[in-house]
Amino acid sequence: MSRLSLLPAELRRSLEQRCALKVIAGLMNFDPAKVAMVAAAAGRGGADLIDVACDAELVKLAIEASAGVPVCVSAVDPELFPAAVAAGAAMVEIGNYDAFYPQGRIFDAAEVLAITRRTRELLPDVVMSVTVPHVLPLDQQEQLAVDLVAAGADLIQTEGGTSAKPFSAGSLGLIEKAAPSLAASHSISAALHQSECAVPVLCASGLSAVTAPMAIASGAAGVGVGSAVNRLNDELAMTAVVRGLREALARPVISRV
After folding, report:
1. N-term to C-term CA, the chain
2. Taking the CB of residue 136, how many other CB atoms lie within 10 A of it?
3. Is the pTM value of this prediction over 0.70?
């Protein structure tokens, strides 16, 4: 039986219907007030999943503020995950790496695989998503994704928005911003299909309501959106963005709050 069956039914259904929406508070965001705002907006806007920093208290806060939206925790240290799962996290995410690149911290395939294997040792029965570093060439991203599934990953997430250098305004600029993530989603989804590794792909980093449908068309089962929401300082504005994303994925908004 797939570990994905352990996910809440609504989240599992969204993945199966390829319209999952994950709102990302930020791997380095340990500000309870800001996380609560993001979580509340995610709940009101109809998100399927909230991704927060790997901290037990933030997990509890996000669940409460969102009125029960499932929570995923992100980290690159496997030893941090068990406490967050015990606090109620529905799944764990290895990544996102965007926060580390400005520090000169680069994750290669061998390290990501090692983190994945250690996480699976610690949490044999917990759903695990793993981000494929966008610093790798696309062919190496494809191979790493296949290897990660063999090592126990239940979902694969892409990235790439930080490497994009959009030079246009408006919708064209939003498409340019998302291009690396979309390319990774297409390549990785195709590679997993060819290898008969039937795991969902989440396309994340640099996405917006304009490009979320393109992510689904590229082969993703859902999208992860962070800065488009968490950079805002108003909960109403955050909620509006989440609602726009939900509608862009062609599913009605069902508020939990």
Report:
1. 33
2. 18
3. yes
Nearest to 199 by CA among 181, 214, 220, 218: 220
Sign, CA torsion 235/240/66/85: negative
Question: Among the residues of the chain, which ranges form H helices?
Answer: 9-16, 32-45, 56-65, 81-86, 109-122, 138-150, 170-194, 212-217, 227-230, 235-248
> Are 74 and 100 within 8 A, CB to CB?
no
Integer Cα distance of 108 and 100 in angstroms: 13
Spatial distance between the Cα atoms of 146 and 132, rounded to a whole number of angstroms: 10
Q: What is the pLDDT of residues 68-118, one digit of tens each?
A: 999 999 999 999 999 999 999 999 999 989 888 888 889 999 999 999 999
Please give the Cα distance from 78 to 100 (Å, whole number): 16
Quick one: which H or E segment has residue 109? Answer: helix 109-122
Angle, alpha carbons 255-83-99 (nearest 5°): 70
For the record, the structure tokens of 188 come out as: 């990785």
